[in-house]
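CO-FOLDING WORKSHEET

Operator: S.A.
Ligand of interest: zinc ion
Run index: 161
Mode: holo prediction, single chain
Checklist:
[x] sequence pasted
[x] SMILES validated
[ ] output reviewed
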Amino acid sequence: MTVRQIVMYPNGILEETCEPVSVFDKKLVKLLNDMYDTMIEFDGVGLAAPQIGIKQRIAIVDIDDHHGTIEMINPEILETDGEQTDPEGCLSFPGLYGEVTRPDYVKIKALNRKGKFYTFEAEGFLARAILHEIDHLDGILFTSKVSRYMKEEELEGLSEE
Ligand SMILES: [Zn+2]
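OUTPUT RECEIVED:
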């Protein structure tokens, strides 16, 4: 188990566009496993590679539901629908929370750790977490979408992404 260090805002890498992954090797598997350990260690529901200093289009999401860990490599959004407004946080902004409006439904396609394409549909909080992480791969931070910042007392048991 290797917990990596989380890159905090305002580190420039968080605002850069990440590069697509083209090599699916043991190094990638190790990276995905380390990302998982890091996300769990810091109590997150998602983590993108730039958040551990790696400028590649890799992100994971795990909201602790029956879907388990969703590993997204070179993800693309195929479809979105609806709207939801809810509090959001980010492991790169400890203690900062704000309301963000996002689609309520998303359909993505991505590659798994073996380089195989899959599609995945999500709604509600899972869709939010997926969209938050994909934004990271384009250097888009949740703070650019916050409509209202919230005090920590207003939120109980909210997870960071
Ligand atoms: Zn984040």
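REVIEW:
The chain is about 20% helix and 30% strand.
The beta strands are 46-48, 58-61, 70-81, 84-88, 97-102, 105-111, 117-123, 146-150.
[x] output reviewed
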